[in-house]
Amino acid sequence: MQKGNIGVTTENIFPVIKKFLYSDHEIFLREIVSNAIDATQKLKTLAQSGEFKDELGDLTVHVKLEKDTLTISDRGIGMTAEEIDKYINQIAFSGANDFLEKYKNDANAIIGHFGLGFYSAFMVSKKVEIITKSYKQDAKAAHWTCDGSPSFVLEDSDKADRGTDIILHIDDDCREFLQESRISELLNKYCRFLPVPIAFGKKKEWKDGKQVETAEDLIVNDVDPLWTKRPADLKDEDYKKFYHDLYPMADDPLFWIHLNVDYPFHLTGILYFPKVHRHVELQKNKIQLYCNQVFVTDIVEGIVPEFMTLLHGVIDSPDIPLNVSRSYLQSDSNVKKISTYITKKVADRLDQIFKDNRSEFEQKWDNLRIFINFGMLTQEDFYERATKFNLLKDTEGKYYTLDEYKELIKGEQTDKDGSIVYLYANNKDEQYSFIQAANNKGYNVLLMDGEIDVAVVNMLEQKLDKTRFVRVDSDTVERLIPKKDSTKDELEKAENSLLSTMFSSQLPKNEKMDFHVMTESMGENNEPIIITQSEYMRRMKDMANIQAGMGYYGQMPDMYTVVLNSDHHLIKDLLNKAEESCKAALTPIDVEMTTIRKRHDELWAARQGKKDDEVPQSEKDELDNINKTLNEKKTQKDAIITEYAKDNQIVHQLIDLALLQNNLLKGEALSEFIKRSVNIIKE
């Protein structure tokens, strides 16, 4: 029997293990089982090289629970007493004070120190035993025991078979790791795809109305996961089955990409494009990162570009730099290379799918576009590649590449300044009449109804030369794509003012909406009234919903323009009747205002060319009084027109129809509209 001291106080070494090396107690099982797998794989390598000539036999790693212990057993290379002293007592702690002193400020620098994984066992154990026998001929079995103190005991053992048993005496405050369900959960999480069979318990079957254990071991891992196989040997059904094994509740994936590279780094994996249900929040961190089939993490922002964190699947690479606990990625040039490679591989694969089967690609575009558009927004090198297969969809359901669509519309949809105008809608039903008006003009309208399409529109305006995107309901059809300088409305100023006051006085008044009324000659066959919303302000408010730092726009009221078609007979009739009904009340005020304005103009003309101090104070006061009087008269006129409009059913009906068309008529106002409509029908 050998008794010894590890060479460091408990107060030093175990806080380091817990604080610096491992952030989560549960990974002890991953580390111990991984050590067992490594020992087994080394034995297989020795057998292949001819150095080990005995029968390998059953190489299954066994995980066994008892009342107070958890045991992990393998039939790998085992260790001699000398190797225990070298790998467990010495190297793990580098003599141990020197080790602690050297690495106390940089736990990441401990990578590669054999034996450290084993010491994670002390996070959950009050005592750890190693019972081991080396594969070497005539080797003696050894038994090492340590209770977490600086001391250990190393003695002979009567173990007959090669391999190693690690016996963990679980600490009282960690008894969750004595529960079968908890261990099963951790094995599934960390060891699901390790390359050597792992047995935990026995298979169960139904017998006499209850589940009973059989004599057959329950193997809990898949030693040959799909990503380790050659793509040429796999069928679509294999990829789909593996996907559903990873994500049991998910729909079939849209596409998948099998990664396999050996130089300048080694990386394998499978990335899936999941089917996305609209209005369901996309979930990140669904890609599982493995290192030699050992699960590391599902937080892969440092390995794949940001947009690919929306994908599902697995990536396995021994060349991804990890800290000693295999829990955190480290900064390294390989990470950038891997990210660049994955971006190129994904883009090339999507381009190939598009070329090989465009019809299928188009059918899946509505689900696929969130990934591609997000990638184009966040990754410049992906944008350059994706322009070849990024699609635009119009309101008729036809798909175009960027180049195809530019060629389609450049003839009809180029404005007077030479810019190509891309018209779009974000709701085909709500903007139906605007779409129809544009189609009737020979324009094509895109459907941009995706969650991030407002950002895509901004991106394309910046990337494409002489290009503007205009939502189809942002203006009248005549002004969406101006072909020449606008012409003035044929109505007189007084007529414009009368119509504007009639309608603005009856529009809804609240803090969330602001309306501006104007008249325009739109043709007698077009609608009498439409409501548009400024492209700039609406887009800024939409961006405020998805982009930080734009909250100011989100708090502003929605600004709408109410456009009255001065060519429509309903508007003409309203104007004529209003002028006739209000003439008696308005004429005296107009005559008085004409006289006052004449004096206003005289005073204003007299002060032209003079400095302010050269204008007599009496004239300044008179001009101020005139302006005040004109405002009062204007208020009187507005009150007369408002009173007339208040009881005019046609005014209210036209306003409500325009609001309804824009989904702005709700609640009590909608109820009143329905009642009024019924009364009009009865009449």
* Largest beta-sheet details: 9 strands, mixed
**What is the gyration radius calculated from CA atoms?**
39 Å
Query: N-to-C terminal Cα separation, in Å?
Result: 111 Å
Tell me the total number of β-strands: 22
Q: Specify the number of helices.
A: 22
Structural class assignment: alpha+beta
Helix content: 40-55%
- What integer is the average pLDDT? 85
Low-confidence stretches: 7-12, 92-100, 102-115
- The best one-word shape is elongated
Share of residues in strands: 15-25%
Q: How are the strands of the largest sheet arranged?
A: 1-6-5-4-7-3-2-8-9
Describe the structure.
The protein has 22 helices and 22 strands. The chain is α+β, with helices and mostly antiparallel strands and 683 residues long. The strands form five sheets. A nine-stranded mixed sheet has the order 1-6-5-4-7-3-2-8-9, with helices on one face. A five-stranded mixed sheet has the order 10-11-14-12-13, sandwiched between helices. Strand 4 and strand 5 form a beta hairpin.
